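Why do we bother with holo predictions? Because pocket geometry can differ from the apo form. Keep that in mind while you read this record for calcium ion.
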Amino acid sequence: MAKHWWQEVVVYQIYPRSFKDSNGDGVGDIRGIIEKLDYLEKLGIGAIWLSPVYQSPNDDNGYDISNYRSIMDEFGSMEDMDKLIAEADKRDIKVIMDLVVNHTSDEHQWFIEAKKGKDNPYRDYYIWKDPSENGGPPNDLTSMFSGSAWEFDEASGQYYLHLFSKKQPDLNWKNEEMRQSIYDMMNFWIDKGVGGFRMDVIDLIGKVPEEKILTNGPKLHDYLQEMHEATFGNHDLLTVGETMAVTPQTAKLYSNPSRKELSMVFQFQHVGLDKQKGKEKWDLKSIDIAELKEVLVKWQTELDGQSWNSLFWNNHDQPRIVSRWGNDQEYRVESAKMLAILLHMMKGTPYIYQGEEIGATGTPFSDISEIKDIESINMYHERLAEGYAKEEIIASINAKGRDNSRRPIPWNASRNGGFTSGTPWIALNENYKEINVEAALNNPNSVFYTYQKLIQLRKDHPIMVWGDFELVDTVDEVFSYYRMYNGERWLIVTNFSNEEQFFSSKEEIEEIIIQNTSDRVTTLKDITLQPWQAFVAKIK
Ligand code: GLC
Ligand code: CA
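The structure, written out:
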């Protein structure tokens, strides 16, 4: 496999609404991001994945786009965006745009036209169906945001499909002219010098709703190959597909280079392990480390040499990892560092979600009135109607809802964490006076410096990028593996638990590369790992 820049970098995801507000309206913006580029340079990242900044009525915080070629007023202007790309470039940071083309906003010009009638030229840009025989929706497909996926349009007597909110009508990828418009739009951004695209729910674009086929539809890969050819094919861009239902087998269809589709995909099998099988993410179950290991190891080994992995614990749809699978109380710092070391030492491109690098936690919500996210709000009402207790629903939201990771970044201990001089659109974490960027930068033992070091190690040691992966057999709670490259071997040892664990190896340490405890590890024979301990040893 040819080598690419996007295998060597670490990517940092910015959720603009919550990153930094430059003008006091309580909403983060592009100028705020520009202000913080020096901070990101200091961290060492090579690319920013920017959650959507396009014009949007914000039914789903920008994932409902009403114009792909203009910037949301709250976030700034196209001049700001051009400046962001140029300023990032000066610091060797590429900007990866979020490409949301499974659906648009219902306020997009295309949909406004489409609604005008059955013979409007844009009608077929979306998916319309007649009512079923009994007059109801065409079938029982449900939206990811609760309720039917079909919305009735009085004027034409037809239903349109929306796999997310009813303000996010699904585009009809069977329409060639629509596809061409998307490719033109992508080229508009490529010409601006962006570093690539993160493709929102891209595994849905081949859907066949009448047969209830959603992910992995028959034409999906034809469309991606066509897109590759029409847009980024001749540029070395990072393209990462958000693919909810992917397995190692199907991942290779997207990302084996010979197929000319994407650089890599985000798989979600590991973050689906703390839900009850066959149920929704709200139906909680605790994480089983043996299962987690099995899944992550499977991805490491099955893609090897054929496709490239993406590595992540967090994003704007997932709860904060230190609160989710670490220990955000007694061992917050240790567990945050351990999770970082465990992930960044694996083979693939690591993604950091804003705030992860300071070990940001979540803060429980106590009432639905505090919740902003449409997904949680819709689910709340649906489950309430089904007879669930309020407390149980709120507990699910606290465990899995998307608002916690969308709380503003605290930059310092001042009012509102220095995020805004106004009123933040959603409350900050309660602990922002202790856990904030300034405090992290001032403390040489903070989580920040572990991330910074991991990123620097990646730049200095090809083994971290290219080395082979091999699992070490241990007790369940210990996650240990080798990376091996050109005769060099690193042994990664992590304790994924609140208890001490036994570990032993016949290997001898040449050098400790990184660790999260103050006591130096000096031997690998019969050692007791402290709760959440993690270290990487270069082996003789
Ligand atoms: C993706 C996004 C999520 C959004 C959804 C609909 O899963 O990551 O935030 O709500 O797609 O666009
Ligand atoms: Ca603002």
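The chain has four domains: 7-87+309-363+407-460, 105-170, 176-308, 465-539.
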